[in-house]
């Protein structure tokens, strides 16, 4: 039987153009930008790629929501990038494990074309494998460089917060918050550079809401240890958070509810921290804000957590929570309805 022979060149889908590996990379046919890859000892491109684990690169780029992978790198069976591409006698290429599983199920056809196979041999597509390696390696190295850059920026911003004042401080906090949200790996950098204790120190009785709202927006995105949470429970800091929950923007209010709920998960938390009429009134006002479902859900979630402390339930009832929640029930989403019903059930046991 005739057997498919691996060619030295590779055919792109659609256009039928025959190209070799170096031409594809140099001319940027598959998205470009690979020209910066270092050459190996033999002068071939993609030598760095061979030193990196392809599967690891694919996973990290996928989790980072990087650019779309060229369709020619995708296995038609799994719709995932190929790590070990092999070609059938029909000229179609698949991930080795996927096509072998296809054969093990008794199929004797090509999954893409449904042609009957005259030879079930699979040939490693080394050219495509090199090209996949080169493409992912280049983008992986760029991702790592960007990550190092943003970590450096984050450390610099933390240091600058020790010096800057006024609007410059607000802007530095905004920049740090944007980096923390966009690059989760920066969280450790912020903690290692003393960022948590520094940010905590910025919260106090004389802190402006402009600064306070940005600090809270950063803290709710960090992993805080027990000591940090205990420090943040100081009355002056909680008082500022409650003020912002009453007067801040909707985003600030949501962040404040997340912040308080985060503190409530700490073993050293005491119910007195949330036994404020001003806090409860602000939460009910947030829950009644029909224009923002996210704010409503955040408010109900915190109110449910507060209701778990029996000592505060009578205070919640005293601010009119029961009739207000009952009135809202008919128009709540399923998720919010469940939260509201749980709160009402807890409050029903209050004398």
Question: Can you offer a commentary on this structure?
Answer:
With 351 residues, the protein is mainly alpha-helical. It folds into 2 domains: 10-140, 2-Layer Sandwich (Herpes Virus-1), CATH 3.30.40; 161-307 and 322-347, Leucine-rich Repeat Variant (Alpha Horseshoe). Helices cover 57% and strands 3% of the residues. A 3-stranded antiparallel beta sheet has the order 4-3-5. Strands 1-2 form a two-stranded antiparallel ribbon. A hairpin with a 6-residue loop joins strand 1 and strand 2 (18-19). The longest helix has 35 residues, at 126-160. Mean pLDDT is 83; it is low at 1-23 and 25-50. GO terms for molecular function: ubiquitin protein ligase activity. Pathway: Protein modification; protein ubiquitination. InterPro entries: ARM-like, ARM-type_fold, ARM_PUB, PUB22/23/24-like, RING-Ubox_PUB, Ubox_domain, Znf_RING/FYVE/PHD.
